């Protein structure tokens, strides 16, 4: 069974801090994704990666960066956290082409004070 | 950009059928997924339909696709309290999957 693990379920940080969210998958998937989920807005794609060291901007990349040094790990970085980045963050992975089903972690609820 | 629309809430009585509707704009979608999100968890793949199909049945779940109108629906027969969750419509084409805002299903006992 595919396992996508996000390092924290809940995280509280202060405005201006640099924040790292980590995600690891154990199924050798090529593709990894970071979304944020806000009520009424659904899932919005922040960044995705289709290979090690490769990254592509999603729909809302501003204020975020990502790192994929190893195939199994995809990190989301908030360079200087702001209150409007308070949200639920979901990591997902999939194999093959981009239209294959995605497997999700349980999410990290991030609060920026 | 491409868009997916779903109603935000649906309330049904236990034992009734639930129908969740979705309209989308991307005509190149080859797979059309339904995901389920239970409280405090990530999304789980529930079922899917290929774009060349009209209907797919999987136990209590029936997916209907009207490709001409770009309309997708999910019917849950004999809805149970354990079906209470958020359901996401997610058409996938090319390298992209677009998620709707999700329909929160409330099941009244």
Total of DSSP H or I helical runs spanning 4+ residues of chain B: 0
Shape of chain B: globular
Taken as a percent bin, the fraction of beta residues of chain B is over 45%
Number of helices in the DSSP assignment of chain A = 0
First-to-last CA distance of chain A: 37 Å
Class from helix and strand fractions of chain A: mainly beta
Q: Choose one word for the global shape of chain A.
A: globular
Largest sheet of chain B: 6 strands, mixed
Cα end-to-end separation of chain B: 40 Å
What kind of assembly state do the chains in view correspond to?
heterodimer
Strand content of chain A: over 45%
Please give the number of β-strands of chain B: 11
Radius of gyration of chain B: 13 Å
Q: Radius of gyration of chain A from the CA trace?
A: 13 Å
Q: What percent of the residues of chain B sit in helical stretches (DSSP H or I)?
A: under 10%
Mean pLDDT of chain B: 93
Please characterize this protein's 3D structure:
The complex is a heterodimer of chains A (113) and B (109). Chain A has no helices and 11 strands. Chain A has 113 residues and is mainly beta. In chain A, a hairpin with a 3-residue loop joins β4 and β5 (42-49). Chain B is mostly beta strands. In chain B, 0% of the residues lie in helices and 58% in strands. The model of chain B has no long low-confidence stretch (mean pLDDT 93). The chains are: A mainly beta (113), B mainly beta (109). The interface between A and B is medium-sized, with 21 and 26 residues.
Give structural attributes.
heterodimer; A: about 110 residues; mainly beta; seven-stranded mixed β-sheet; four-stranded antiparallel β-sheet; 11 strands; B: about 110 residues; six-stranded mixed β-sheet; five-stranded antiparallel β-sheet; about 0% helix; about 60% strand
Describe how the helices and strands are arranged:
The complex is a heterodimer of chains A (113) and B (109).
Chain A: E1 4-6, E2 10-13, E3 19-25, E4 31-38, E5 42-49, E6 56-57, E7 64-70, E8 73-78, E9 87-94, E10 103-104, E11 108-112
Parallel strand pairs in A: 2-11
Antiparallel strand pairs in A: 1-3, 3-8, 4-5, 4-9, 5-6, 7-8, 9-10, 9-11
Chain B: E1 4-6, E2 9-13, E3 18-24, E4 31-37, E5 43-50, E6 55-58, E7 61-66, E8 71-76, E9 85-93, E10 96-97, E11 103-108
Parallel strand pairs in B: 2-11
Antiparallel strand pairs in B: 1-3, 3-8, 4-5, 4-9, 6-7, 7-8, 9-10, 9-11
